[in-house]
Design brief:
single chain, alpha+beta, Glutaredoxin, 5-stranded mixed β-sheet, 3 helices, 31% helix, binds FE2/S2 (inorganic) cluster
């Protein structure tokens, strides 16, 4: 049996960090803790997820995060998006189309 229901990786690679991903990570951890979800949802830092390199303008899609087991990748995530990600994706399982970069086919 898996310990966590969700695992969220926040990219702290240099392009995402330059656009505030550390603050996204901190706010995400804070919300998960505040909402009593720590036993259910793991939040981790990640190295470059390569999303930043998918355009000619490097970093255009930064910051990036990915949520498993759904395999949902979000781009251009800011601190102000974190509450909505927790309320909608983490709590209700809704994919946020406006931030969606990629959805893995599982
Ligand atoms: S630095 Fe975040 S995707 Fe590359």
């Amino acid at each position: 049996m898996d310990k966590y229901r969700l695992h969220i990786f926040v990219c702290l690679g240099k392009r995402c960090a330059a656009k505030g991903s550390e603050e996204v990570l901190d706010r995400l951890k804070e919300r998960i803790k505040k909402d009593g979800l720590k036993a259910d949802v793991k939040v981790s830092r990640s190295g470059c997820l390569q999303v930043c390199k998918e355009t000619h303008s490097e970093g255009e899609y930064s910051p990036a995060i990915v949520i498993y087991p759904e395999g949902v990748w979000y781009r251009n995530v800011t601190v102000s998006d974190v509450d909505e990600i927790v309320d909608r994706h983490v709590r209700k399982g809704e994919t946020m189309e406006r931030l969606l970069h990629y959805r893995m086919t599982l």
